[in-house]
Amino acid sequence: MSRHRGRGMASINYPIGMNLGGDPSQALVHSNPSGKFTVALSSIDLGQGMKQVTRQICAETLGIPIEDVFVDTADSDTGPHCMGSFASRGTHRAGNAVLAAAREARGVLLEAAAEELEVDPGDLETDGRGTIRVRGAPGKSITVKEAAQAGQFKQGRTIAGRGIFLVPLSPVDPETGEMSPATCYAHAAMVAEVEVDDETGVVTVVRLDSAYELGRALNPRMVEQQLVGGAWMGVSHALYETPEPYYPDPKAGGRDFVEYLMPGPGDIAPHDIAVLERPAPDGPYGGKGPGEMCANPVIPAVANAIFDAVGVRMDTLPITPEKVLRALKAQGGARPQHRAGR
Amino acid sequence: MLEFRKDYFADERRDDLDVIGKGVQRQDMLGHVTGTTTFFDDHKMAGMGHLKVLRSPHHHARIRHIDVSQAERSPGVRRVIRGADVPRNLNTLLGLIGFGKDDEPSLATTKVRYRGEPIVAVVADSERLAHEALARVRVDYDPLPAVFDVEEALKPGAPTVNDVYPGNAFEYHDRFDHQRVRFGDVEAGFRSADHVLEQRYQMSPIEQAPTETNGSIAAPETNGRFVVYTPTQGLFFSLDTCAKILDVESNALHFVGGTAGGGFGGKVDSLTEPLAILGAMLTGRPVRYVLGREEEMQFGGPRSGERIVIKDGLMRDGRIVARKVTVWFDSGAYTRLTSYGAVKCAAHVPGPYTIPAVHGDFYCVFTNRTPATAMRGFGVTGVDFALECQMDKLAALAGMDPMEFRILNAYRDGDMKAHRREAKNTALVECVQVAAEKARWPIREEFRRASSRTGGGGERARIPPTPKDTSPPKRTAGGSTYTPSVAPPPASSWDRPAASPPATPFQERFAMPPPPPAPMPRPASSQPPAPPPPEPADRREPPPPAAPGPGTTRFSSVFGTRRR
């Protein structure tokens, strides 16, 4: 009786957005009298960071400090339509809508500034710190606040913008399945190292190494949050959880977090992540969306690592100790393969 | 630990942006970590009623009689709500965009189709009083045979789960009981292959398990409107679903949400909003309906169980020349979103690889369990597990390193994908290279030098000749002739002629086979089951022109009235 180590890998891609009835999102951006901006959305922040990622897109596009933008979501009386936060669509679809709205608002802001400075709006640039200046003439400038005040109290302009991003419905061919299901794809490859105890059937994930290609990481800390959390979910899917442990027999399902097994803090493996950025031509600043995909490569990588460690193929999820022991018994014991990456 | 590999694709990217690409602290972070963020359940109001539902103890049963007289007299009860009180007590979520037929009641009236299906709702002054009143509801049931296995459910004589789809399969394109992918000639591919490997995979349902369970608070506003505090993942999707079920204009509802305590796909279905609003309509009070953890776990709509069979043709040099995939999604008793998950899966097959012949059949099957719904990776997570385990087995069969095997077969810019669109902006090769480097997993020089930007297109961009599929266009028996109506037809007309109930005990009929004793390749006995035989002649009349149900034509300010 002993513990066996093994490594397995998997590589995947993931579609961004969905193909159902068209896939639109809208955004409204406007300035208060002091040049502070609000983004109104009906998109949902589930904890994934919808508010912050759209806030950064808006600030970048307007060319103003991040502190001068807040995102208001979601009130159906004030926020324009969004399909919702699912299908990894939030960053890409809502982000593009905010980008369009912020571009329009920036256009008005620069027109207001140009009128005050008596120059052409095309000669203006923003410094990202709250100042609008004439390109090539650093002394000639106006603050965003002064421009917003002049626009609203002197010139009669709404410093505001509207944005919509729509991916039209692509019909699905009944015979061939021909369709345009998504506009871009994120990618990942994962290596899992596991230890399998051939006496108890317990599988421990020892470490994870991964590479994710996400278009552009609009906020690296939030990307890390998704990828680390998602890998945990992948380990949980692979080894622990289901409300129907004897599926398709519906007996004996967990009713709470005591009976429904998930990895605890002591079960979290070190995870080294590399992020690659191949910008999506149609993404906001090239962004795609890391949200959903990050559990997916972990599950098969763990299953393949178990095979490498003890020589049994686990083709049914979750891979519980009971299933591992049954498979080892049927095989007549562990048969380490040690073929992966050596 | 997270590192950036800026050396990859640097020529396709500007790295001089101001705040994009910076790890700026989230605007909601302080609120989250100090416990001051407002969630839906923080909107408690004076005089608020609490709604709870009575759930079916049976997996499948006819309801003979419901007696609520004792419950109505129970202390603190403001209102008992039954199916007849729901203005439009039949709905399907994607009916808003004309996809599928109304098939799910808010409160069951004549039958229950899964254990946990809501039958009666009570609004009372506290959750405890609501539970006490529910304990006084009397329901007489006639238990019916139930089916829990997707392949059993498709066999002739299986109990009909969902009367709207008598063959127990969602109907695609008014014609098929599955979604197809046909690209090239897989049979020719198998004939020319050096190895053919067919394997079977199964994943069990998974609960989204958000910290915050599903729930909502609805309250009367002025002008006949109702405000709804909700953690829904789709604000207008939920609003329009409620407007349809409650038969009100969309501007009668004012939804406030946007901040949810986790979702992962489990908050798309509007599980609580319609009854909370109806409770507020019927009592004139604010009404709170929040699922307990057990309700969330057992009846909240999990990721579906998926059964996947993959058959591949492989050459000695490691190239995959044909891939055939069959997936059965276990939708549970009603459609919810699984019909779409199967389409998303169809678009995903054969995974991020260029394979010249691909054949896929994707079924959305009804069984007597909690309806499944969306979850993170919807339609993809399960099949990725199967595809990547299969890839590992194929690599071993070809005697190749698994990393090198992925790179050899990876899709590249300019390749034609099975859903007949050109691959662009691909990066699988580079991800494999970097993962190998990080894990100190040696791969040979030629694979380290490979690129997603070269080697694609040309012959790989071609749509191959695809033989016409001559198998009969199977449709779910009688499915097209069902016309949903607000008042369901008498129960006796809802069921298929009773087949003799299966006599074998449950475990024998449905238990999964034990793990195979030997590693692959598995003998050919693991063939997927033959498709169910054609329907009896009396079920094969041509269907009338697709008559969209009320749900498919009515909507909406948001989605328009498109019907596919």
List keywords for this structure.
heterodimer; A: 342 residues; alpha+beta; Aldehyde Oxidoreductase, domain 4; 2 domains; 4-stranded mixed sheet; 12 strands; B: 564 residues; Aldehyde Oxidoreductase, domain 3; 7-stranded mixed sheet; 5-stranded mixed sheet; 15 helices; 21% helix; 18% strand; disordered C terminus
Bulk shape of chain B: globular
CATH superfamily (homologous) name of the largest domain in chain A = Aldehyde oxidase/xanthine dehydrogenase, molybdopterin binding domain
Secondary-structure class of chain B: alpha+beta
- Tell how many strands the DSSP assignment of chain B holds: 16
Question: If you had to describe this structure to a student in words, what would you say it looks like?
Answer:
Chain A contains six helices and twelve strands. By secondary structure, chain A is α+β, with helices and mostly antiparallel strands. Chain A has two domains: 163 residues, Aldehyde Oxidoreductase, domain 4; 145 residues, Aldehyde oxidase/xanthine dehydrogenase, molybdopterin binding domain (Aldehyde Oxidoreductase, domain 4, 2-Layer Sandwich). In chain A, helix 2 packs across helix 3. The two termini of chain A are 24 Å apart. Chain B is of the alpha+beta class. In chain B, the strands form three sheets. Chain B has a seven-stranded mixed beta sheet with strand order 4-6-2-13-10-11-12. Chain B has a five-stranded mixed beta sheet with strand order 8-16-15-14-9, with helices on both faces. Helices cover 21% and strands 18% of the residues of chain B. Among the domains of chain B are: 194 residues, Aldehyde Oxidoreductase, domain 3 (Alpha-Beta Complex); 188 residues, Aldehyde Oxidoreductase, domain 4 (2-Layer Sandwich). In chain B, helix 6 crosses helix 7. Chain B contains 15 helices and 16 strands. In chain B, 57% of the residues are buried. Chain B is globular. The chains are: A alpha+beta (342), B alpha+beta (564). At the A-B interface, strand 1, helix 1, strand 4, strand 9 and strand 10 of A face strand 1, strand 8, strand 9, helix 6 and strand 12 of B. Strand 12 of chain A pairs parallel with strand 9 of chain B.
